[in-house]
Amino acid sequence: MAIEQDLKAAGFPPLGWYDVLLELTRAKDGKLRPYEIEQRTLLAQHNLSRLIDRMEKEGFVQREMFHEDGRGRWVTVTEAGRAMQARMWTVYASALQRHLGAKLDDVHANQLADLLAALSRKS
């Protein structure tokens, strides 16, 4: 995927990292349960667990106990994770424009925006 290649060329982690960091920064208190991250992204549970391990090792997220039941854990975005998401966005946004936006006329761009908004409301 061209966007993945642009992120890699800029020295950033894969797009999946951006997706997780974005969902965490959007979440209340910057934290979600792993199943909530799975629901909000296209990442499968087994891939997500390994991804969170790597992100935690890099200091972008941390795991916290879920105090309500003591069994589960929260995944919380760190300040380093928020900063990484913001830096990745600069490359991601220009890559979206170059690889996708520049290829659509206004009518198709509006249709795509409407479809994405509908999908967002259903998730």
Description:
The chain is mainly alpha-helical and 123 residues long. It has a single domain (2-122), classed as Winged helix-like DNA-binding domain superfamily/Winged helix DNA-binding domain (Arc Repressor Mutant, subunit A), CATH 1.10.10.10. It is 63% helix and 10% strand. The chain contains six helices and three strands. It has helices at 2-9, 15-26, 34-40, 45-57, 79-99, 106-122, and strands spanning 31-32, 61-65, 73-77. Strands 1-3-2 form a three-stranded antiparallel β-sheet. Strand 2 (61-65) and strand 3 form a beta hairpin. The longest helix is centred in the C-terminal third of the chain and has 21 residues, at 79-99. The protein is globular and about 50 Å long. The two termini are 24 Å apart. The mean pLDDT is 89.
Task: Itemize the secondary structure elements and their pairings.
Elements lengths: L1 H8 L5 H12 L4 E2 L1 H7 L4 H13 L3 E5 L7 E5 L1 H21 L6 H17 L1
Antiparallel strand pairs: 1-3, 2-3
Helix pairs in contact: 1-5, 2-5
Short account of what is shown:
The chain has 123 residues and is mostly helical. It has six helices and three strands. It has helices spanning 2-9, 15-26, 34-40, 45-57, 79-99, 106-122; strands at 31-32, 61-65, 73-77.
Radius of gyration: 16 Å
Calculate the mean pLDDT score and round it. 89
Q: Please describe the biggest sheet, giving its number of strands, its sense, and whether it closes into a barrel.
A: 3 strands, antiparallel
The CATH level-2 architecture is identified as Orthogonal Bundle
